[in-house]
Structures are given as C-alpha cells and as structure tokens.
Amino acid sequence: MIATAGAVRQLPEEATEWHVRRLANELADAVVDLDARMRAGLNVPSAWQVVAPGADAHQAHDPSDARAPDDNRAQDDEPGDRSNPDAPVFYCLRAADLEEGMSTDDGQDIVSVTVLEDWVFADVYTPRSDDPQQDEENRHETECRMYRPDELVGMATFVDTEIDGSEADGAQPDPHSPSCSD
Fold it and tell me: Which residues lie in Basic and acidic residues bias regions (predicted)?
C-alpha cells in the first residue's frame, strides 16, 4: 500500500489515464484490506508499517550506481544453471529494456510495457499453467509496476517464459547466482 501510494504521488504528467486508474484501484484495494485487518484485530503486515524515511529519501535518482536489489531474489538451488533446461535462470535488466512475454524473478509474467521519458510501467500477472481458467482470470487482474528507465529489475527465465532476456545486450547476471559470487 505504501509503495502504491508513493507511485501515485510520483506519477509523471504524461502517465496514461489507464495507469493512473490501475494504481488508484490498487491503493483503494489495499486500504480496504488494511481496514478489514484492523477491524478484525489482526496485526498490520510489516510491509505496511510506517517507517521514517532515511536521510537520502529525497535525493535525485542516480542510475550510475544502479545495481540489482538485494532483497527481492527468488531462491533456487541452482540459479543460472544452463545444464538443466528446467532450472530457472535469474538475471537483471534495465526497466527500459523489459518486453511483453518476459518473467520477473518473483514469477510474474509481463503482459505489457509502457516506456515514457521518466518512467516505465510494466503490467504483470501471476501465471497458472496448472489451471488454464485461473490463468485467464489472473491475466485480466494485472498489477502495474513502476520503474525508472535505468533501474535494474530482477528477472528470470522459467520453462514457460515466452521471451528469454538473459542473453540480451543489457542483461546482467544475478548477483545471488553462484557463478557471480565466486
């Protein structure tokens, strides 16, 4: 909820009406969920806890120090192992290079990408190859993710990923892969 609110607050003027509505709907859904949790006496998820911003919270974005995020990697026994065709391959890619048909490292499939001057909007959904009906429903309930064009996004190529971006010119190895930590 906090991330969506921040994304809505930073929307560029040229953002499409569709993206603005998607982010607003996600925020409204999160507020309803939070309210229901609080009324039921449940603890608020730690991701929704209010945290004071750090000293560098309002500094300008500097893509020169961009690197793969440390805390959003999917864990796997053999990431990046090309000898096993069923093993996922994890890598990082600039947001401006994302394409429809790629997969994120958290298992989401990208269904559309909109690149603006200062922002990249990627609509993703949770694929369900085991349940075609649920897969179709999920495809119509996408989540909109917002990135800076030079921001590195954690990506993966799974067995059912349409486009393997791990060999793209701008692809970088996942820093959590055994081959990168030697």
Answer: 58-84
The answer to whether residue 57 sits within a structural domain is: no
Tell me the helices (H) and strands (E) count for the chain, helix number first.
3, 7
Q: Helices (DSSP H) in the chain: which residue ranges?
A: 2-9, 17-39, 132-139
Give the global pTM: 0.56
- For residue 164, pLDDT over 90 is answered with yes
Strand 103-104 relative to strand 120-125: parallel, antiparallel, unpaired? unpaired
DSSP class per residue in 113-147: EEE-SS-EEEEEE---TT-HHHHHHHHTS-EEEEE
| Structural domain count, the chain | 2
User: In terms of domains, do 119 and 160 share one?
Assistant: yes
User: Are 98 and 128 part of one and the same domain?
Assistant: yes
Only one residue has tokens 């064009």, namely 149
CB 93, CB 69: distance < 8 Å? no
Whether residues 140 and 92 share a domain: the answer is yes
Instruction: Tell me: pLDDT of 21 over 70.
Output: yes
Q: Is residue 19 part of a domain?
A: yes
In which domain, by residue range, is 141 found?
A: 64-173
